[in-house]
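Practice problem: Transposase Tc1-like domain-containing protein
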Amino acid sequence: MTARAQRRMLNEVKKNPRVSARDLKKSLAHANISVDESTIRKTLNKNGVHGRTPRRKPLLSRKNIAARLKFAKEHLDVPPHYWQNILWTDETKVELFERNT
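Answer key — structure tokens:
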């Protein structure tokens, strides 16, 4: 792979960090540069660009966003000692002496 092709590929990755090696291969093919996907990955790794999967975030609907904002505004002036008595849970169902069915 030529230095020019590497620069072109790195610039594309900087513009769109979520681009796949397959898409990079297609875009380089439009410029008459034939490169395998594994070569693309190796070149990106050598240049400090590693493939990572972004962290999943919970999807919030407009209704949930509005409810959270309303809750935050209502509890804005609550003193810090109030929150020490609140039990924060992840809403997991737990049954001590029965089978969870």
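Discussion: The chain has five helices and no strands. Students who identified this feature from the tokens alone can consider the problem solved.
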